[in-house]
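task queued by scheduler; priority normal; single chain, no ligands, no partner chains; default sampling; output format set to C-alpha cells
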Amino acid sequence: MSRGGRGHHRSPTGPSPSFLGIYLNDHLTGANGGVELLRRAARAQRNGPYGASLESLAEDVAQDRASLRTLMADLDVPVLRARAVLGRVAERAGLLKLNGRLLSRSPLSDVLELEAMLVGVEGKAACWRSLRGLARTDPRIDAAAMDELIRRAEQQIRTLEALRSAAAVSLFTREAPDTPARRHHRAAFG
C-alpha cells in the first residue's frame, strides 16, 4: 500500500499493533501496576483504618483487569508481554520514591499511594468511557458492560478520594503546630 494509505505499517516482526491495541495494552499495564500497588497498600494497612477498604478495592481492580483482558480478546488485541513487564518494573520503582524515610515505611506513603491509585482509577474510567463511545460502532463491545465498569470506576474514585482525604488530613494535622483549630479538631475527632 502507498505511504498515504490506511493499512498497517509493517515492522520486521509483523504488523504493528493498532492504536486501539496500544491504548488497551497501556491500560492493561496500568491495571497490573494498580493491582500490585493496591495489594501492597492493603498489606501495609492490614490492621490500619484503610486496610479493609484497600483490600476490597484491590479485588475490584483485579476484576476490572480481567474484564479488560476479556475485552481485548474479544477485540482480537494481543497482550504485549513486554509492556506488562515494564509496568511491573515501574510499579516496583515506585517503592524507591523519596518519602521522608529511607529504611521504613513513611506515613506519607499512604497519602502518595492513595493519590497514585486515584489517578490510575480516573484513567481507567476514561478508558471505559472511550470504549463505551466505541460500542456505538463496534458490536464486539457490550455497551451495558461498559456502563457497569464506568459505574464501578466512579465508585472506586469516590472511595479512594475519601481515603486520600482522610489520610492527608490525619497526617498533616499531626504535624501542624498546636492551634485552637487543631485542638478543636482533636477534641471533635479524637
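post-processing summary
- The helical segments are 19-44, 51-74, 81-93, 107-134, 143-175, 180-189.
- The two ends are 70 Å apart (CA to CA).
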